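seq as requested:
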Amino acid sequence: MHRSAVATGLLVTPWPLLVAVAAPVAGRLSSRFPAAVLGSLGLLVLAIGLMLLVMLPDAPTDWNVAWRMGVCGVGFGFYQTPNNLTLMTAGPPQRNGAASGMVAVARTLGWSLGTALVALIFGQRGSAGSMTCLEVAAVIALIGAVISVSRGATGAGAPVGA
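struct tokens:
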């Protein structure tokens, strides 16, 4: 969108800021609601935010970009915290170190595969790749929401202490 590096950085800032706001709220709600519900809701909101970014006008204002990034941040915050809590508390306490390592490996694998997929899309689509990446990310978030809600049906992801 022909913005400077500083302007671009400021435009993506609402995402991590709203993750920081949503994550503690989701953490508190995790004691009352299954992680499957909170995580699925978060992924659905993330997918909506990504699709809102796809629908940006040709010459968006900073506000048009920023609030959409914020929607993505809220969705990701509502997914990440309950999901990590479930992963860290699923096993016995003496295995927390192993669980933490697995979470870190999964996160790094996701970053690596995501980066490779983005490079592949840009290699194939050129300048149209950015919208394709957002569309693919929205689809992946929706698939994740379906998978996440399905774990509620099997009893996994119940509130801690339930």
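Residues 155-162 have pLDDT under 50 and may be disordered.
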